[in-house]
C-alpha cells in the first residue's frame, strides 16, 4: 500500500514513517535535496522495466505532476545506456492523467546502440494503459572534431536573490482579507507542499508573451550529472504552459483547464540543478483551445544549457468565456 511521505506525495517503497522533516525556511535544507532526488528516482523490477518510487499530486491538479513523469522516464532510460553517453534530446507525449495512488511502470525499449548515439523509447503505464510515451537520444561527447558553437545572450532580468520565492508570494496572498475561503484553503495546501525546488518569478507588469523564472533545488546535490539532468527535466514543466495564459492576460480564476500535451527538450551542455538557472518562456501562439510555448534555460554564468518546447490544452471557465465574448461585442459596436 502507498504511504504519504510529505503533503500530496505518495511513496510506494514501504510503510515506514516519513524521515524527511525539513520545512520551508529551515536553515538546513539538505532534506530538500534528498527529497528531490527521491522524486525522480525509479526502481528496477526486471530487465528494461522500472517502477516509480513516489508520485506527486500538486494542489488543484488533475493528476501526477507531468515533470515528474518526464524525469522518471529519463532516469529509467539513463539506466540502460553506458555512463559515457549523455542525454541530448527527448520528445514526449502525455496521453492520460497519472493516478497518484498507483505506481507508474516504465518499460524501456532499446532501439539503437551505436558507437556515438543511443536511442531509447519509454512507455509509462498504469493498470495496463499507457499514460505517457517518450523517445530519448543519447550521445557521446564529440572531442575529436572542431565543432561550431554559438548561442543567444542571456536575458537581462533582476537577479534571483532580489526576488521572492513562490512560497513567499503565496504567504503574502494568504494574508489578504478579501479572498474566498476556498481560495484560502488552496493557498494553504500549496504552502504545505513545501516544494523541494525553489522557484522565483520575474513579475510582469502587463500581459506579455514572454516570462522569466529562476529555479534550483533547496540544498546541494552530489556530482551525478544524470541526476541533475533529470531534475532539470522535472522543473522544466513547472509553470511552463502557464505562459500561454499570461500572454492573454487571463486571471487564475479564469482558467478552466490547463494541461500539457507534449514536452520536448534539447540538452546542450551539463548544468547543475542546485545552482540558479534562468528559464525564459515565450508563447508565440494560442488558438483552437491549445497554446504552444518555447523555453531557454540558462546557467548563472550565461550559458544556454537547455532548450524546451511544449503544447497544451488551454480552456477558459464559462464565466471567463462569457466575459470575453461581451468584451468583443462591445469592441465591435
- The total of beta strands comes to 15
**Could you tell me the mean pLDDT?**
90
Can you tell me the CATH topology?
Porin
> CATH superfamily, please?
Acyl-CoA thioesterase, double hotdog domain
> What distance lies between the first and last C-alpha atoms, to the nearest angstrom?
61 Å
What would your notes on this structure say?
The chain has a single domain (29-143, 158-331), classed as Acyl-CoA thioesterase, double hotdog domain (Porin), CATH 2.40.160. It is 23% helix and 36% strand. It contains 7 helices and 15 strands. The strands form 2 sheets. A 12-stranded antiparallel β-sheet has the order 3-4-7-8-9-6-12-15-14-13-11-10. A 3-stranded antiparallel β-sheet has the order 1-2-5, with helices on one face.
What key phrases describe this protein's structure?
333 residues; alpha+beta; Porin; 12-stranded antiparallel sheet; 3-stranded antiparallel sheet; 7 helices; globular; disordered N terminus
How are the secondary structure elements laid out?
Layout: E1 3-6, E2 9-11, H1 30-40, E3 42-46, E4 49-52, E5 54-56, H2 66-78, E6 86-94, E7 105-113, E8 117-126, E9 129-139, H3 166-174, H4 181-192, E10 197-202, E11 210-217, H5 225-236, H6 242-247, E12 255-267, E13 277-287, E14 290-299, E15 304-316, H7 318-332
Helix pairs in contact: 2-5, 3-4
Amino acid at each position: 500500500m502507498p504511504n504519504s511521505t510529505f503533503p500530496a506525495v505518495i511513496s510506494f517503497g514501504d510503510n515506514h514513517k516519513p524521515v524527511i522533516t525539513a520545512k520551508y525556511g529551515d536553515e538546513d535544507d539538505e532534506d530538500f535535496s534528498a527529497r528531490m532526488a527521491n522524486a525522480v528516482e525509479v526502481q528496477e523490477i526486471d530487465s528494461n522495466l522500472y517502477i516509480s518510487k513516489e508520485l506527486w499530486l500538486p494542489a488543484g491538479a488533475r493528476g501526477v505532476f507531468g515533470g515528474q513523469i518526464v524525469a522518471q522516464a529519463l532516469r529509467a532510460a539513463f539506466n540502460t545506456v553506458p555512463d559515457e553517453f549523455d542525454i541530448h534530446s527527448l520528445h514526449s507525449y502525455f496521453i492520460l492523467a497519472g493516478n497518484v495512488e498507483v505506481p507508474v511502470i516504465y518499460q524501456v525499449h532499446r532501439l539503437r546502440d551505436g558507437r556515438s548515439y543511443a536511442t531509447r523509447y519509454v512507455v509509462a503505464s498504469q493498470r495496463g494503459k499507457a499514460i505517457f510515451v517518450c523517445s530519448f537520444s543519447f550521445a557521446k561527447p564529440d572531442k575529436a572534431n572542431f565543432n561550431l558553437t554559438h548561442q543567444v545572450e542571456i536575458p537581462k532580468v533582476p537577479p534571483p536573490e532580489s526576488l521572492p520565492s513562490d512560497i513567499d508570494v503565496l504567504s503574502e496572498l494568504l494574508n489578504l482579507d478579501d479572498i474566498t475561503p476556498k481560495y484560502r484553503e488552496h493557498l494553504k495546501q500549496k504552502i504545505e507542499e513545501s516544494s523541494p525546488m525553489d522557484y522565483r518569478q520575474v513579475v510582469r507588469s502587463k500581459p506579455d508573451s514572454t516570462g522569466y523564472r529562476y529555479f534550483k533545488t533547496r540544498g546541494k546535490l552530489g556530482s551525478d550529472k544524470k541526476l541533475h539532468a533529470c531534475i532539470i527535466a522535472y522543473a522544466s514543466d513547472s509553470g511552463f504552459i502557464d505562459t500561454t495564459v499570461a500572454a492573454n492576460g487571463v486571471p487564475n480564476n479564469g482558467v478552466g483547464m490547463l494541461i500539457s500535451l507534449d514536452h520536448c527538450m534539447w540538452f546542450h551542455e551539463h548544468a547543475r540543478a542546485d545552482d540558479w538557472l534562468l528559464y525564459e518562456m515565450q508563447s508565440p501562439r494560442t488558438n483552437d483551445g491549445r497554446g504552444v510555448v518555447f523555453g531557454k534555460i540558462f546557467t548563472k554564468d550565461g550559458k544556454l544549457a537547455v532548450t524546451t518546447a511544449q503544447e497544451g490544452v488551454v480552456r477558459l471557465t464559462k464565466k471567463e468565456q462569457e466575459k470575453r465574448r461581451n468584451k468583443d461585442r462591445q469592441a465591435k459596436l
